[in-house]
Amino acid sequence: MKIAYYPGCTLKTTAKNFETSAIAIARELGIEMVELPRWTCCGTVFSLTADDLIHHVAPIRNLIRVQEMIENGQIEDEKRVLTLCSMCFNTLKRSNLRVKENTEDLKKINDLMYREKDYRAEIEVIQLLELLKEIGFDKLKAKAKNPLKNLRVAPYYGCMILRPIEVGIDDPEDPTIQKDLLEALGAEVIDNPYKKVCCGSYQTVNNKEKVAELAYNILGHAQQEGAEAITTCCPLCAFNLDTRQKEVLKNHPDFQQMPVFYITQLIAVAFGLDNKTFGFNQNYVDPKPLLKKKGLIK
Amino acid sequence: MKKLVITSENIKFLKKINELADQDITLCEQCGTCSGSCPMVADMDITPSQIMRMVQLGDLDVLNSKAIWVCASCYSCTVRCPRNLDVSKVAEALRQVYLRKALDYVEIKKIPKYELVSLPQIAIVSACRKFTG
Question: In a 3-state reduction of DSSP, which class is residue A151?
């Protein structure tokens, strides 16, 4: 299948490893991710004030790009756009929902973008985990020639793929989608209640000490339960949980650093793909020693 | 404790926040679920339910609280409110009252360059959206 793919800015820089591993596993599953031409930043956060329409222009403009891809035949029989980044997913999906439910807002936004063709509000926004679930985790299991045996992983969901309820891809209080996926790949999954507790998000810009404390709680609880690594699908969670371990270590000298994977990196390892697709050089805490110890990579 | 006499100014403020947040904040019954769910509450000067109460009373002092800026819009309160209210929208409305005076809460310029280059763009763009006017 061919599907329109919206990367978003961070997937091209600090989360390049998320993109390369996602494209590689998608290819393995027979999915071609076709990047939107002329995409722009979505704004990263959904505007929460009722009168502020201007900040929905960027997300809707990107959905017009998807509409164009269908019109000119780049994509057939697929009215969905695939996102990887949780923040892009949340922003695009909520803006889309707002114009789907409110024709007056849609008209105003279309009028603002008078040089674009009108958005018809027919596109759906999905996140990669949803697509993988739809394909079936049994199919992923069949592809896992290098099962993640003995690897104790704690899935971390963060906020943006779970909340608010109208955009969430799983139960906001007890999500299991990553657990089901990782178990299918042979990993030992460590479930813990911190999997859905916020990592501090953009507060990392002006309050990194607080974010380091939140990261310490999230990572520490997973470790207490026996986890050796964490998975996520949000580049901001990844930064706060992985790179901020530098600050965590400064404040808590006994803290044992632990790798934070994009879920797609672990899928790529389980599929036994070329190690160039993993992009481990971009992870702050090097996951290679752990994977070598478990005999999962050479 | 200060005595609050509700004037037309207070009522106007409540109406304004109701409108910006698209909520009927008077529906809040002060059960405290939002405060108990908030991952940032330990760093707040007033709790999320206190924010709601102050807005109900039209108390403009809520605009000076640190709490509205500590909120990370994680929507933990949103999914749990038994009255289907959205405190994250109320916090955003309050931040917007300040930011729409073309004021910045965080001066991005003052963040050292070595910090900025290491941050993912989604962090910087979000911070600009939430903290600059």
Answer: coil
